[in-house]
Amino acid sequence: MSRTPRLAAVAAASAAAVALTASPALAWTGGAVSASTGPVGSCANVVLNGSVTPAGALTVAAVSFISCTPQPVPQSLPWAGSITDGGGAAALGVRVSVPIPGGSCTYGGTLTGTNTAAPAPVTISFPAQTINKVAGSFLCPNTIQTSPAQLVLTGPGI
């Protein structure tokens, strides 16, 4: 299997990360939130769970990759970020490791996108973008391109 399909899972995870890294200037109730991508890259679905404060600070506590080949592993949780009234979104500290023969490749950084903000549920869209290798052997590409993704943020915290 080539590195491209293996790294597609990283792209899916990276794009999905932004869904639960919100810090909006909107009227959040505070509490639990979750996000789901649907099919992205080599994954059938990516699900994120976390919480949001009434001030809009959001924490991604868990990431689940559903039916991915290969199976990526989230790193450096929790993840954080922002979502704005103006329709912007950003994820900070996103990090995902993907197994390759004899080791793994870890990619991470900041991702940006747009959001519908209101009414709930919030939809966050991410274009394809480049993220950098943060660890791994010489077999790992220095950068990868994420897949475009659309995420739906729901829960009692919205």
Helix content: under 10%
3D shape: elongated
Indicate how many domains the architecture comprises: 1
Distance between the termini: 41 Å
> Radius of gyration in whole Å, from Cα?
15 Å
Q: Uncertain segments of ≥5 residues (pLDDT<50)?
A: 4-25
- Total strands: the figure is 11
Return the average pLDDT rounded to an integer: 78
Instruction: Count the DSSP helices.
Output: 1
**Order of H and E elements:** HEEEEEEEEEEE
Signal peptide: 1-27
Keywords: Signal
Protein name: Protein activator of alkane oxidation PraB
Helices and strands in order:
Blueprint: H1 3-17, E1 31-36, E2 45-52, E3 58-66, E4 73-74, E5 80-83, E6 88-100, E7 103-115, E8 122-126, E9 130-136, E10 143-145, E11 149-154
Antiparallel strand pairs: 1-2, 1-11, 2-3, 4-6, 5-6, 6-7, 7-8, 7-9, 8-11, 9-10
Tag the structure with descriptive keywords.
about 160 residues; mainly beta; eleven-stranded antiparallel beta sheet; 1 helix; elongated
Descriptive notes:
With 158 residues, this protein is mainly beta. The chain has one domain. The protein contains one helix and eleven strands. The protein has one helix at 3-17, and strands at 31-36, 45-52, 58-66, 73-74, 80-83, 88-100, 103-115, 122-126, 130-136, 143-145, 149-154. Strands 1, 2, 3, 4, 5, 6, 7, 8, 9, 10 and 11 form an eleven-stranded antiparallel β-sheet that branches.
Give a quick summary of the entry:
This protein has 158 residues and is mainly beta.
